[in-house]
């Protein structure tokens, strides 16, 4: 049994973290230097066997194996590994075949690994704003035909979106196989393999395109009005390459970084929203980002958010689909839908984290029958898809409130062949995107960042009031009492459950003396720029009234709470408050 690509990627990440923690690479370099200096005669090449023997004599392999507990394949049976140490960020029990633990993959095996190395270049300005500069898929296997296991590759990086044909620079990449292979391949064999893969990829893409055109013709024959529906089969990525939309979605497990589907929805919600830039008029420029590019810049369009949320919900074992349609005023939009085992249809808005239960309206009911009033903002729906399925809406009306989401009824939803989708979108297919990388834990210290933003806001408020000729007196206790409210707001955003508000109100009543007035204003951001947040707050009349409060015995308070999520995404809650003596 071979590991699925997503499991293999996850295992590689775990082993890499453990090797870095134990500084195994540094110890190997020391052994290499010592072995070459003491044990090998001049001009003798260090073989893999020599390296393994030297590592065993010094106990390095034993140290590593003590930290990793594997289970052998006994009598062709498969057993799960025993629990890993607590400092090993394990995400699941790993299935492994029996191995002597010292065998390296040979050049032929590595040549069969067709996944490229995905490199993303981003730019961060002085305000912390990121922008995507380039995205490149590096074909690394030319190193397998190098005599010394090392090769240098000059890569021309092109821009993204509307600038995908414009060069942004040259990147020199040095690729090295370490430890060196016992036997390398000839460059002719490597080039032949790559040429065969390109030919195979081109043929698969051609066959899928032929099938997609035939599917579209059949779809239009059902009803001519289908031509105006938003049925999205292909979408351009950041490099301007057309890919089947199903390739942008794949089950993604968050490990221990996100515990529930609703927490995953909140994580996707706090990633920034930014429409693809367009030069000149002509409406919206459409650009779907690959997952790595989206996560690296921490912002994207509604399709990027929907693809990520759908991937996470699939990872949680839900039957999830990306929906493509329109919202108010006919604006194109994408959101996520899950189908419950009891037939319940739930819409997930990836930009806000809100959830809506769909209850269809029966247009044949008599007027006296009360119909459900939809709370969701969606108007029409053209198609739904995930990593295995694509279905076009062929019901008489594409209005969401009238649609029946029985996806197994081909009279209502026209499916694409799952085999055709698998040929170009399944993991390991040469036409598909590389395996999704595991999510990274946040590097933001919540307490430190909250305190820094709060101190900056205090300074900005004091300066602003000084310009107005007002003095500023801060009350630390009142500021502290605002904390439960901020925690309650974030909890409600994540779970849709309100809790803890009674205690907050009781504490405020006790802190505000008789004859005094209390005012508070909470606001939420997904960035950590205090000056930008303060400028936004001043645009609210309610917040400006608090910041510029005049009166007798005015005391001001501000509290900041940063809630961190994977990939250094964060939800920043700020609450300004004041209390003053009421004077008639």
TrEMBL record:
Subcellular location: Cytoplasm, Cytoskeleton, Microtubule organizing center, Centrosome, Centriole
Start and end residues of each Centrosomal protein of 76 kDa C-terminal domain: 444-581
Alphabetic keyword roster: Cytoplasm, Cytoskeleton
All copies of domain CEP76 N-terminal, residue ranges: 10-68
Record text on subunit structure and interactions: Interacts with CCP110 and CEP97.
Function statement: Centrosomal protein involved in regulation of centriole duplication. Required to limit centriole duplication to once per cell cycle by preventing centriole reduplication.
Protein name as catalogued: Centrosomal protein of 76 kDa
């Amino acid at each position: 049994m071979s590991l699925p690509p997503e499991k293999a990627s996850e295992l590689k990440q775990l082993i890499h973290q453990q090797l870095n923690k134990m500084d195994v690479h540094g110890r190997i370099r020391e052994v290499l230097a010592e072995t070459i200096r003491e044990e090998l005669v001049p001009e003798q090449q260090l073989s893999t066997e020599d390296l393994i023997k030297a590592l065993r004599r010094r106990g390095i392999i034993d140290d590593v194996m003590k930290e990793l507990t594997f289970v052998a394949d006994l009598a062709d049976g498969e057993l799960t590994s025993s629990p890993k140490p607590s400092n090993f960020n394990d995400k699941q029990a790993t299935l492994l075949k029996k191995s002597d633990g010292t065998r390296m993959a040979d050049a032929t095996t590595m040549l069969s690994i067709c996944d490229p190395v995905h490199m993303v270049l981003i730019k961060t300005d002085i305000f912390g704003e990121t922008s995507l500069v380039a995205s490149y898929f590096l074909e690394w296997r030319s190193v397998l035909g190098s005599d010394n296991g090392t090769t240098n590759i000059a890569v021309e990086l092109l821009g993204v979106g509307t600038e995908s044909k414009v060069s942004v620079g040259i990147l020199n990449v040095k690729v090295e196989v370490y430890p060196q292979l016992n036997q390398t391949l000839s460059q002719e064999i490597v080039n032949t393999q790559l040429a065969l893969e390109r030919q195979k990829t081109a043929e698969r893409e051609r066959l899928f395109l032929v099938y997609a055109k035939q599917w579209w013709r059949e779809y239009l024959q059902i009803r001519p009005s289908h031509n105006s529906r938003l049925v999205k089969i292909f979408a351009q990525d950041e490099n301007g390459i057309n890919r089947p939309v199903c390739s942008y979605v794949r089950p993604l497990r968050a490990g221990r970084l996100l515990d529930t589907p609703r927490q995953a929805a909140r994580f996707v919600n706090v990633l920034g929203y930014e429409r693809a830039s367009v030069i000149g008029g002509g409406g919206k420029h459409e650009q779907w980002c690959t997952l790595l590019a989206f996560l690296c810049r921490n912002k994207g369009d509604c399709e990027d958010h929907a693809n990520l949320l759908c991937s996470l919900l699939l990872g949680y074992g839900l039957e999830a689909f990306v929906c493509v349609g329109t919202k108010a005023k006919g604006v194109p939009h994408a959101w996520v839908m899950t189908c419950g085992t009891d037939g319940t249809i739930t819409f997930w808005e990836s930009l806000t984290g809100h959830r809506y239960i769909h209850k269809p309206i029966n247009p044949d009911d008599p007027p006296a029958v009360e119909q459900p009033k939809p709370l969701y903002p969606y108007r029409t729906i053209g198609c739904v898809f995930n990593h295995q399925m694509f279905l076009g809406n062929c019901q008489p009306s594409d209005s969401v409130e009238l649609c029946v989401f029985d996806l197994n009824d081909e009279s209502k939803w026209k499916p694409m062949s799952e085999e055709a989708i698998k040929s170009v979108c399944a993991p390991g297919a040469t036409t598909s995107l590389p395996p999704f990388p595991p999510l990274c834990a946040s590097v933001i210290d919540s307490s430190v960042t909250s305190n820094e933003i709060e101190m900056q806001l205090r300074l900005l408020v004091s300066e602003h009031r000084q310009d107005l000729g007002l003095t500023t007196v801060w009350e630390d206790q009142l500021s502290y009492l605002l904390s439960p409210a901020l925690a309650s707001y974030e909890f409600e955003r994540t779970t849709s459950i309100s809790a803890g508000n009674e205690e907050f109100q009781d504490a405020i009543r006790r802190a505000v003396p008789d004859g005094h007035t209390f005012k508070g204003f909470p606001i939420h951001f997904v960035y950590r720029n205090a000056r930008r947040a303060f400028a936004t707050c001043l645009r609210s009349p309610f917040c400006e009234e608090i910041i510029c409060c005049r009166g007798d015995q005015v005391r001001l308070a501000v509290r900041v709470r940063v809630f961190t999520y994977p990939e250094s995404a964060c939800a920043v809650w700020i609450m300004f408050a004041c209390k003053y003596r009421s004077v008639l």
